[in-house]
Amino acid sequence: MTESITAENRGESVRLSDVSRRFGNLLAVDNVSLDIPAGSFFSLLGPSGCGKSTTLRIISGFEFPDGGQVFIGDEDVTRLDARRRPTVMVFQNYALFPHMSVKENVEYGLKVRKMKARDRENRVKESLDRVDMGEFLNTPVTSLSGGQQQRIALARAVAIEPDVILFDEPLSNLDVALRQQTRIELKALQRRLGLTSVYVTHDQEEALALSDQIAVMRNGKIIQVGPPKQLYNEPESAFVASFLGGSNILTNPKDAMLFTGLTINESQAVAIRSEHVQVVESGGVEGEVLSRQFLGMITEIELMVQGTKLVVKTTNNVPDTSHLSVKIVASQIVKNDL
Ligand code: ATP
Fold this sequence. Notes:
Blueprint: E1 14-23, E2 26-36, E3 41-45, H1 52-60, E4 67-72, E5 75-76, E6 87-90, H2 102-112, H3 117-130, H4 146-159, E7 164-168, H5 176-193, E8 196-201, H6 204-210, E9 213-218, E10 221-226, H7 228-233, H8 238-243, E11 247-250, H9 253-260, E12 268-273, E13 277-280, E14 285-294, E15 299-305, E16 308-314, E17 323-328, E18 332-335
Parallel strand pairs: 3-8, 3-9, 6-7, 7-8
Antiparallel strand pairs: 1-2, 1-4, 4-5, 9-10, 11-12, 12-18, 13-17, 14-15, 14-17, 15-16
Helix pairs in contact: 2-3, 2-4, 3-4
The structure holds adenosine-5'-triphosphate.
């Protein structure tokens, strides 16, 4: 019987327990604990240098933690090196072998695992079909476009039937249109294969579009974990409210009271989504327009309202005047961690 990729391949859960990693004086990963359910799409999102890639490398076994434990399924893999883990990494630069054909690239990991030639051939074909690249079997990889090379990298990863697939900013080399298309395909493929996927990105839209759950990281720490809608609608802190989707953050209690009627203390702030500041014809507070950017579907306007700068995102046709009236239609109290 030939070996094939099966629908039952549901992946394994990943658990990090109090994981830390230090580089000299820098605590790149600071006591991180995470539960990633089997078969789910989980993103690590945060600004550059917050420790996302190091966390991913610790899951892959390319990096070892100074403290804490890593589990894949029930197995403690903390000290296992990458080759012994049921994980595979898809990199930003694809990491394909330029002197090899598509077939040889996808086959490589199977040869290393000593799979029989006939089984290898079937598996390569299946894997390429899954990413709609079956017709490119004998093409040199260097003659493919960036998007096609990314698909080959994906085929090579799924060919070895990993339990967990790890993505390190895999779409960042593609142009915007191709990135969005590849994102849709990636999500569909992940759903079909049911592989546990851990995805590193600093692109919040990508994380929102792809993930079952997102962990927002900052300075090596996990700040908040949750499904995309929950993180967007119920950010717990000013950092999450502004990093994910962009918000106006009011830290001064007087401003908070003036604009929203909410009472905050020193450790709190009020977050107001830019789309929740609405331009009105009457009944609002007036502000001076500082800047205006037409972005197609929306216009982004910076307003100075009674000494406070507010960013407004609106889909309305706003009059081209130097002053506008605005009304705040929703706001929430968050932790002030800025
Ligand atoms: P980016 O999005 O820019 O890749 P990141 O969130 O993935 O950032 P990491 O690559 O995990 O962040 O890096 C976290 C911190 O650890 C950074 O300050 C980085 O400079 C530092 N760092 C990472 N790897 C090493 C290393 N091998 N030696 C020294 N410092 C490192």
